[in-house]
Amino acid sequence: MRVGVLALQGDVSEHRAALADLGVDAAPVRSVAELAAVDAIVLPGGESTAIAHLLVTSGLLGPLEARLRAGMPALGTCAGLVLLASSIADGRDGQPALGLLDVTVVRNGYGRQIASFESSTELAGGVRVPTVFIRAPRITEAGDDVEVLATIDVGDGVHPVLVRQGPVLGASFHPELTADRTVHALFLDVASASHAALSN
């Protein structure tokens, strides 16, 4: 299975380093040809409107959506989650929401850059992972087909911060900015199982 990282803007090198720690040499994806060469993809954190604009100008938006709808596994973190959402409550005019995750998000939902914070969250099975929130999107609604894998309580209620729908995962936080590889390992497990099923 070949894994790629969308390499238009954002935490590209950090995700590639995280995957390398797990023995995966993830390829940068900047073109339709490079997208066609991978079986699973990470959509990194960065600036969601900038990434959306670059997807359009590079000609990648349509092919990426087609691959995802055909079942390609994906992990979207922060801005990547915004791209994968079905609805962006405060999105800019024309900002694409691919709808692979049936969630509504609010960009910068935990505050601007100055409000960035670190915390931790517990996954199923009691595994606790560190979380870094930088201008992070807040998930305000999740559909019935969305599995909530982790939540956080920041004082105004409990909010999902890691979700899954089929072979697609989305995280409000930046797992690539810590030394913990739990989220990336989970993505690889999901992607491997999905890729095997599609290959049979």
Structure description:
The protein has 200 residues and is α/β, with parallel strands linked by helices. It has one domain: Class I glutamine amidotransferase (GATase) domain (Rossmann fold, 3-Layer(aba) Sandwich). 29% of the residues lie in helices and 30% in strands. The protein has 6 helices and 12 strands. The chain has helices at 12-21, 32-36, 48-57, 61-69, 79-84, 182-199, and strands spanning 3-6, 27-29, 40-43, 74-77, 85-88, 101-106, 117-122, 128-133, 138-142, 147-153, 158-165, 168-171. A 7-stranded mixed β-sheet has the order 2-1-3-4-12-11-10. Strand 1 (3-6), helix 1 and strand 2 form a beta-alpha-beta unit. The chain is globular, with a radius of gyration of 15 Å.
